[in-house]
Amino acid sequence: MKKVFLFLFLALALFAKEKYFVVERENSALAVIENHKFKNEIKNMHNCNHAVVKFIDNDGYMITRDGYLIKFDPIKEKKLGEVRASKSAIGFTLAKDFVAVANYANKTVEIFDRNLTHLQTIDTGSRNVGIKTYKDYLVFAAMDTDAIWVMKKKIKLVPLRCLGPDGKPMMEKNIWFEKFKVIQNAGEVPFDALINGNLYVVGFFNSPFVGVLNLDTFEYKQVPLRLDKKSIVLKVPHFGFWSVTKDKFFIPAVGDNKVFVFDKNFHFIKAIEVEGNPVFTSLSPDRKYLAVTFSGKKFPIVQIVDTKRLEVFKRFDFGGMVLHVRWSKEEPLLYVSNNGQSLVIGVDIQKWRQEFSIPVPKPSGIFLFEER
User: Fold this and answer.
1) Which residue would you say has higher pLDDT here, 237 or 264?
2) Which pLDDT does position 235 carry in this prediction?
3) Cross-strand pairs, 268
4) Cys staple from 102: which of 125, 128, 151, 225, with CB 3.0 to 4.6 Å?
5) What is the pTM of this model?
């Protein structure tokens, strides 16, 4: 039986379609990992201190700390172009016909087409976070004004000077966004959000609750969190990585050693006690396990939660700063970014032990690409 499992594991690795792009935090580069090996490196990617990578179709995009929006080819592993969206950016979202960047320093949201042509500047007067899309809406939180903005996409067809095969002028789509609704006094200092179905869920740095906005009815409610203490927060939780099962939300606490569990109607289920202040909570593809990472003295630790029993059952100490994790969809593996030891580690989640390690200079975010 062990030989059969080993054969299947090796076969999956050999024919795996997964490719991982790992941000090299101090090298202005993206490392490429395939089949458990360092394959390539995309260089000249600007300030990668807080870089985020996303994919749509077979296009890759990255936003950098110093505000560059970069497009790259994840198949050919090649940088295609860049544009500066601001002096400092924090996040972005992708759609079929636009890319929206949430900025810090310029206090704007910038809209581009998929080829990085600038379409619109939305002046918010605030640092902007938690940017998401739903139907024809663009939603984000204004960190400095405690508000949630909802923008609605508009499309206008503009005739071009050239004619089409039918002899009529060819048409170009012009996309822009108009302010649709603003939720004022949503909570103190929003810092990240997730979207699940029609629910936009936002976390706050100075309020003991999360905000839930229904994007169909635009009803807004504040859901209390049971915080016992508030310690110094060295690294704010990344709420975009909250994990959602069919019937549960898992929410990392701000400044408390807890992961909160709610049902789909945001009724409280449990506060799972964890070892430190959680930063990422990441759910396995089969929804059986939740990986939790931490900040401060607990940076080297990763804890695994059983999502059925709602309790921690595994603990790893990797001996360096763990900045990110990513579950494989094809193999029984959890990838761990160990910045302190310049390694990306593969953990076998059937035996719950380290299976291999890949040298990567000062890695942080791990992003999974699956060719379409």
Assistant:
1) 264
2) 55
3) 262
4) 128
5) 0.90
